[in-house]
Amino acid sequence: MPVQVNLDELLKARGMSLTELSEKVGLTLANLSILKTGKAKAIRFSTLEALCRVLDCQPGDLLRYSGD
User: Fold this and answer.
1) Could you tell me which CDD domains the record lists for this protein (predicted)?
2) CA distances from 45 to 40, 49, 59 (A)
3) Greatest distance between any 2 Cα atoms in the chain
4) What is the pLDDT of residues 20-51, one digit of tens each?
5) How far is CA 46 from the centre of its chain?
6) Do the beta carbons of residue 24 and residue 54 sit within 8 Å?
7) Residue 58 has pLDDT above 90, yes or no
8) Which string of DSSP letters, residue by residue, matches 2-62?
């Protein structure tokens, strides 16, 4: 998929676990895992906003377009 999610890298940089992120964002571990593994087909703006708020990042830090 040409759009990739950099969730793993951001979590490592912040020293945060997926469980901790789940609690802070209010999403289930299953949904975050789908996003993290690149299996998600879409993301809501409200979810993107919550992730950016908790991870203190911009949407471009979280999403990457590879063009392939």
Assistant:
1) HTH_XRE
2) 14, 6, 10
3) 34
4) 999 999 999 999 999 999 899 999 999 999 99
5) 12
6) yes
7) yes
8) -EEE-HHHHHHHHT--HHHHHHHHT--HHHHHHHHTT--S---HHHHHHHHHHHT--HHHH
Is residue 64 helix, strand or coil? Answer: strand
Supply the pTM of this predicted model.
Answer: 0.89
Q: Which of 62, 57, 66 is nearest to 6 (CA)?
A: 62
| Two tokens, residue 45 | 């703006």
Mean pLDDT score of the chain: 94
Centre a 10 Å sphere on the Cβ of residue 50 and count the other Cβ atoms it contains.
16
How many residues make up the chain in this entry? 68
Task: Scan for tokens 């990739």, then name that residue.
Answer: 4
Helix (H, G, I), strand (E, B) or coil at 67: coil
